[in-house]
Structures are given as C-alpha cells and as structure tokens.
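Reopening this ticket.

The earlier resolution said the output was attached, but the attachment link was broken on my side. Pasting everything inline this time so it's all in one place.
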Amino acid sequence: MDPEAVANFLSEQRENAPEDLQQSFLTIEDYWDRKLWHQLTDVLVEYFNTPDSASQRLPLFRRFILSFSEKINQLKFVSLGLQAATQCSDDQERLSFLTDLTTKVNKPASQDAYVYALVAASDVKLRLLDLAGARKDLDTAESILDSFDSVETEVHASFYRTNAGYYQAKAEFGSYYKNALLYLACIDLKTLTLEDAQSRAYDLSIAALISDSIYNFGELLLHPILDSLKTPEHSWLRDLLFAFNRGDLNAYNVLEDNISKAPLLDEHKTFLWQKISLAALTEAVFRRPPHDRAMTFQTVSQETKVQPHEIEILIMKALSLGLLKGSIDQVAEVARINWVQPKVLDMKQIDNMRLRLKDWDSSVNQLGNWIEGVGKDVWAA
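Inline output:
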C-alpha cells in the first residue's frame, strides 16, 4: 500500500474517530511508518477492544491491516479480524468475511490461527442452522488441536464454546455439558456478565438433569458459576441439583412444581423421576456400612418409593450404568451391593460419614480389646 495513501486513509479515520481516540491514529501511523509491527499490532488490538471503535473496524481491517497481515502475529491478526467481523451487516456477510480470513491463515506455520478463524466461521454456521457444515469445521479444528503440544487458551475456549453450542442445538446434552464445562475452565469467570453467567449455569443445570449419561454432578456443584443461580428466580434449579445429588425424594417433591417453569425439564418429567429414584437408591446404599449392603427388595422400595414390582429393573439399571456393583438374588429378592460410585458430598452427607467413621473406630477398639482378652500373654499391646 502506498505510504501516502496510508497516511491519507489514517488521517481520514482519525477525523472520524471520537476525540479521545484520535491520538491512537498518530501512534498507529508512526509505528507503521517505522515498521514496528509488534507494537503496531498491540495498539490496533487495544483500539479494536474499545467499544467506540466499532464503526471503524471493518474499514481499518480491509484497507489497512490486510496490507501487512503477513508481517504480524497471525493469531492476533485473526483476533482483529473477528473484532471487525462483528460489524458485518448480517451473518451471511460475516460468514463470507470469516471464510476469506480462514483461507488466508491456513498455512503450516499458523495452524493455531487457522483453528481460531475456522471455529469462528463454524459459530456463524450454527446461527445460520448449517449444522452439518459447522460439524465438519469443528471436527477439522479438533483434529488439529489434538496434534498440538500447547496452544493459546483463547483458541481452546473458542472451540469448546462453539462445540458446546453445536451439541446444544443437537440436543446432545451429555456432550454439551462436557464441552460447556471445559469452556468455563478456559476463561476467567469475571469476564462474564451476570446475565451470561446465569444463562450458562441454567443451561448446564438443565443438561445435567435431563442427560441420560450424567448421574454425577460433582464438577458442576463445586463450580462457582452455580452461585449465579442464587436468585429468587433461579434458586429452585440450584436446589433441585443438590436434591438429585443426595437422592432426596422429599426435597424433589417440594421442588417438583417448579419443573413446569423449564420446558425441557417438563418434557422429561418421567425420566427425572427415574433419575431421582436411582439417586435415592445409590444414596441408600452409600449410607450403609460396607458389611451391611445386602438389601431386600422391600427395603429398596421403602427407600426409593418405587413400586415393588419395579425394584429389580431399578437395580439392574443402576448396575448397567455403573452406579453400583454387585449381584441380585431373584429368588430371595435381595440385592448384594459391594461398591457405589463416589460423588460430591454435602454437609449432611459428610456428617453421616463422620458418624460412620466413629462407629468404625469403635468397632476396631472393641475388636482390639477382644483379641487382647482372648490372646492374653500372646497378645502384645
């Protein structure tokens, strides 16, 4: 690009910029003239991150930044392109813009930037309901990411966010839950607005409850984003998650009327009852000491409020899902359980563990006293 044309363009943009941002253009022109590409890139990133720069991002990118794009960090180049793309008139124009950007950085030395741009394009395809196209781009991005030893966190965050959006659109709640949590692990939660945090916590909670592959909510229950649901409008959903975690049928019955507030939960109401019944079963087993985990079907029925003729199916379901390990005596109608899946405990459950440890300690002392009494001189204290 001709230096005089650059100077005229930047002068024009400076005049159009808000007064408090006009000094930035003098710095930009100075760095460009001196070919200080790293410093120039940082100033442009800072300028593009300023909300008042919105109207100038596209012309700056198309008429200025593209002229020296080969000379700057390609990941930052894509970042500038993504900022500029927000000013496109619609998603069709935005997709065309991002497709060109993706092609430009698709080189062996800039595969991280390529993934970053490709994921952004797939996000637009999701909004345009081109799920097949989005999935193809995401699969390509994932295969490249898997080949990296390390990559910038923002690239991973972008991938997990868009991948979660794809699975949410496909109603694949288990995969959505996994990718949404991975996205949150890649970002600083302080960068989320309260509304965004509540929305993500809400969607994660719904996915955890209605997924047929998630029976342990520990990672979500411990995640600080769940605190965003401590509001009069959403607190019932947070309480429902904790009720499921401890298999609390009474709490579920109290909160059940709120389920109609969430259409997806209302559609899966029968499944939710089956899931809370499984949670009640695993909790009943967990509360028992290891030597007392042979439970009659009648006992299971009392603990889970499930009809006696459905108990065997319930236990078989828990065994098949890996929530429990053991065997069933169909003739005697007894389930012998020798293992229960670990899970996050609330304070009440921790207190129950404390009482069990005290009982165990007492039993060990009694056994020691008995051996000492029986062994007499043979026993060495």
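Reporter confirms the inline version is readable. DSSP finds 19 helices and three strands in the chain. The first strand starts at residue 294 and ends at 296.
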